[in-house]
Structure formats: C-alpha cells, structure tokens
C-alpha cells in the first residue's frame, strides 16, 4: 500500500490503464517474458525459432506475432541484437573476431560482420581496435 | 553526430550531486564552475565512458512551472535501466527515497518512479 500522502498520480493511473487495456492476459505476458529470458540465457547456443516458441508453448506464427507486439521486434531480430551485444563485449575484452563470432552463436564471420555493422554502426574490427587503443592509453 | 549527453533540470546542483552519487550510485564525471552555476555531469558506475547526465541548474522561470507540473503529475523526467528492479526498490527505500509508483508491470517492462528531491520524478525500469 502507498502512504496516504502519496496520491494516485496521473502517470501511475496511465500505466495501470495501459497494462489493463493493452496487456490484459497475464498468462500470455508470462510466456512471452519467459521466451525472452530463454533467448537472454541461451543466445550463445545453437537455438532456433522452434526452440524459442516451444519454450513459450506457442505455435511459431502466433509466437512471432505476440513477441513483436510486446517487444517491438521479432524474436529473431531480438536474438541477433543479443548476440551482437555479447560479441561486442567479447571483442572489447580482446577476443579475436572469429572467436567472438562463434562464441555468441553465429555460424559465419561474413554474416556476423554484416549484422554487427548494421546493428552497432561499426565493424567488429573497428570495435576491437577501439578497445585496444583505449587499453593501451590507460 | 553522437549522443553523448542527456540532462535533467535540478533545483539545487549540490544537493542533486549528493543524491545522484550517494543515493543512486552514479559517479561524478565533470565539474566546471561557470559563475553562479556549474557544468556538472555524472555517469553510471558500470559505464563510466558512456552517456553523461548533466545536472542542469534551473535558471529559467518558465522551466520551473513545467518541472513542477510534470512532478505533480508523477511523470518522470528521465529513466534509468536496472537489472533487478525489486532489489533496487528495496535498496532505495531503505535509504529513504520516496516512491510515487512501486515496481509495476506494464507489458514486458517493470517500472517504478521516485522523487529525486531536486524537483524531478525519476523512473527505473527492468526489461
């Protein structure tokens, strides 16, 4: 409970309104969040859409539609983003480009490089060099 | 063009620096005296080379009205990402921070809003 001096704010009432009207089915929300956590925890493994949809107990088509509704991106786009973020950390820690690529679940260096550039705006090599320059400077 | 700075307008810069560093856990990055006020920024402890948050002095009268109305409506001036919102809520509450919205689910995001003691509501969120 909130203390009495804390009245219901406009913002809190809007959040509650949106939750009630846009996300009324708790069980769907729980399943979609579960699938997102599945990606977060398993992105480096060889997972595919079937694995992710299965984790949420949905058919593939239904799952893609719901995931996009909740997160604004498809499960595949989200998986790629998480993998690229993971690769960026590995590159910054000094790992080679190919080890970082395979280490986060990508299967080819050229496609990894292309996706990395599309998502971060820089190449894996440039990211790695930037980290090396920074560590030398420090 | 790069996004390197963002800002919140604060009623007292010194008080804000204390709150944002000692309570929230940010780190002071830059402090340059500029007459009556100063150029004052903080960064996240985990990303000290990341985006800087400018604690901007409230020196423009119409901005005071705007800030006050946002505050009254409970609308956050900005938002910070956290890994575990319930843990952060407990930590901040134990330090005396006042929340106008406890951790609340909205779709796939958990949100909470609190008073920064310098005229603003701040939001923390967990994805």
Which features does this protein show?
heterodimer, A: 138 residues, mainly alpha, Arc Repressor Mutant, subunit A, 72% helix, B: 127 residues, alpha/beta, 2,3-Dihydroxybiphenyl 1,2-Dioxygenase, domain 1, four-stranded mixed β-sheet, 43% strand, globular
SSE diagram, text form:
The complex is a heterodimer of chains A (138) and B (127).
Chain A: H1 10-22, H2 26-42, H3 49-55, H4 60-71, H5 75-92, H6 97-103, H7 109-120, H8 124-137
Chain B: E1 5-10, H1 13-23, E2 27-34, E3 37-43, E4 52-57, H2 61-72, E5 76-81, H3 85-94, E6 99-106, E7 109-115, E8 121-126
Parallel strand pairs in B: 1-4, 5-8
Antiparallel strand pairs in B: 2-3, 3-4, 6-7, 7-8
Strand fraction of chain B equals 35-45%
First-last Cα distance of chain A: 49 Å
CATH structural architecture of chain A: Orthogonal Bundle
Strand residues, percent of chain A: under 5%
Low-confidence spans of chain B: none
Helix content of chain A: over 70%
Can you tell me the CATH topology of chain B?
2,3-Dihydroxybiphenyl 1,2-Dioxygenase, domain 1
Number of domains of chain B: 1
Task: Using the CA coordinates, give the radius of gyration of chain B.
Answer: 15 Å
Anisotropy-based shape of chain B: globular
- Number of helices, where a helix is a run of at least 4 consecutive DSSP H or I residues of chain B: 3
Average of pLDDT of chain A:
89
